[in-house]
Design the sequence.
């Protein structure tokens, strides 16, 4: 929905591949631990795994830190709304 109205978003990913599931116009604002999680679980590089493979686990999002999210928020504001700095 954000894409249709031109609203930038920050995507947080652990279970699915952000290149597959979006945010399509805001890939530079992704915080992801997906690659680490998937390679840890399957013991293969991401490139050798099927495109749609998902990581499993209740605590995967814990691989994303508050600091990483704050950095992306700062980046988005700086890139999109420099007048707010």
Sequence:
């Amino acid at each position: 929905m954000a894409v249709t109205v031109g609203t930038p978003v920050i995507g947080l990913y652990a279970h699915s591949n952000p290149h597959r599931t979006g945010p399509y116009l805001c890939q530079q604002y992704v915080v992801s631990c997906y690659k680490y999680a998937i390679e840890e679980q399957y013991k293969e590089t991401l490139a050798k795994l099927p495109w749609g493979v998902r990581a499993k686990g209740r605590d995967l999002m814990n691989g994303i830190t508050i600091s990483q999210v704050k950095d992306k928020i700062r980046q988005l504001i700086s890139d999109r709304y420099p007048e707010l700095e």
Observations:
- The mean pLDDT is 93.
- The CA atoms of residues 5 and 81 lie 16 Å apart.
- Residues 3-75 form one domain.
